[in-house]
């Protein structure tokens, strides 16, 4: 068996795979956060709760309606996106002219309420969600065993992340969104409904969180705490990448997932803190983040 610095290649590549999977979730969640902050200037602390709602939607669609994984990947983000759009219209839209702290406190309160309601109804015990039959099993690559569902998570999340980046940065719709946040009066002069566009942007951002929740459901147990356990790490990823930077969120998410995986191999005691250590270092050297714009 080949070893690298005393670690077998099978263990090393296994941890790198886990790191890429975690990085896929970090990238998707931080992408939604960066999108909402970059275009709406709202620090969305409810993101973890909406990620959890996506996983629960997939579970309900399967157990109550018999709709499997592939249907849930489409329906759950739509349902959670509609729920998020209602939150934006009824509550968050009233805070755009106020300091960021008000939006943070409101979304933090929403997260506590949503998680509390699910915990009252379903307790703290996680519920399993089966891997879709079309992605069951895996392939032996010689140096490691690659589960097909894990490979799909990495490829699928990367495709969604790059597709979102292209939509925001390279299309006319994306240019309208960016313009609406910088000069809404000018955009209104072109006959564009700016409030509706902002609402749809928030709904799309939380829909990404729900999409991530559906993808996570077969890997992690579906539980009310699954969002709160992840959201602090995701906020650290966004800060390192640069608040509001779309590509920064994607690249940093995948990169920090790999760093976390390698840390578990070579220095496991620091695996739970390495991302926060890196965040402190980045903030000292570059307060705007690696890909952020210094103002």
Radius of gyration: 19 Å
Nearest-integer average pLDDT = 87
Helix run count: 11
Could you name the CATH class?
Answer: Mainly Alpha
Give the spatial strand order of the biggest sheet: 1-2
What portion of residues belong to β-strands?
Answer: under 5%
- The helix fraction, in percent, is 55-70%
Structure explained in plain terms:
- The chain is mostly helical.
- It has a single domain, classed as ABC transporter involved in vitamin B12 uptake, BtuC.
- 70% of the residues lie in helices and 3% in strands.
- It has helices spanning 9-40, 47-65, 69-90, 100-122, 148-170, 172-182, 184-189, 194-216, 228-241, 246-266, 274-285; strands at residues 3-4, 7-8, 138-140, 145-147.
- It has a two-stranded antiparallel ribbon with strand order 1-2.
- Strand 3 (138-140) and strand 4 (145-147) form a beta hairpin.
- It starts with a strand and ends in a 10-residue tail after the last helix.
- The mean pLDDT is 87.
Give a topology summary:
Blueprint: E1 3-4, E2 7-8, H1 9-40, H2 47-65, H3 69-90, H4 100-122, E3 138-140, E4 145-147, H5 148-170, H6 172-182, H7 184-189, H8 194-216, H9 228-241, H10 246-266, H11 274-285
Antiparallel strand pairs: 1-2, 3-4
């Amino acid at each position: 068996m080949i070893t690298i610095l005393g670690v077998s290649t099978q263990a090393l590549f296994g941890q790198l795979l886990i790191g890429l999977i975690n990085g896929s979730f970090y990238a998707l969640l931080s992408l939604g956060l960066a999108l909402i902050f970059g275009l709406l200037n709202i620090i969305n602390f409810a993101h973890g709760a909406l990620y959890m709602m996506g996983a629960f939607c997939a579970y309900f669609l399967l157990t109550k309606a018999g709709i499997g994984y592939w249907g849930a990947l489409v329906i759950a983000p739509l349902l959670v996106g509609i729920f998020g759009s209602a939150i934006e219209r009824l509550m968050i839209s009233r805070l755009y002219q106020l300091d960021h702290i008000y939006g943070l406190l409101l979304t933090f309160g929403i997260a506590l309420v949503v998680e509390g309601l699910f915990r009252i109804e379903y307790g703290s015990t996680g519920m399993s969600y089966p891997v879709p039959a079309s992605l069951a099993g895996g392939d032996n690559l010689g140096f490691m065993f690659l589960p097909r569902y894990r490979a799909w998570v990495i490829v699928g999340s990367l495709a969604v992340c790059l597709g979102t980046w292209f939509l925001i940065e390279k299309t006319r719709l994306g240019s309208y969104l960016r313009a609406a946040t910088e000069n809404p009066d000018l955009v209104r002069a072109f006959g564009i409904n700016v409030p509706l566009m902002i609402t749809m942007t928030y709904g799309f951002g939380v829909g990404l969180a729900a999409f991530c929740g559906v993808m996570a459901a077969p890997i992690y147990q579906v539980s009310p705490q699954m969002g709160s356990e992840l959201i602090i790490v995701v906020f650290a990823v966004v800060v390192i990448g640069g608040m509001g930077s779309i590509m920064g969120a994607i690249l940093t998410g995948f990169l920090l997932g790999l760093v976390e995986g390698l840390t578990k191999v070579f220095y496991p005691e620091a695996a739970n803190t390495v991302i926060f250590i890196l965040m402190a270092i980045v903030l000292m050297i570059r307060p705007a983040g690696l890909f952020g714009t210094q103002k």
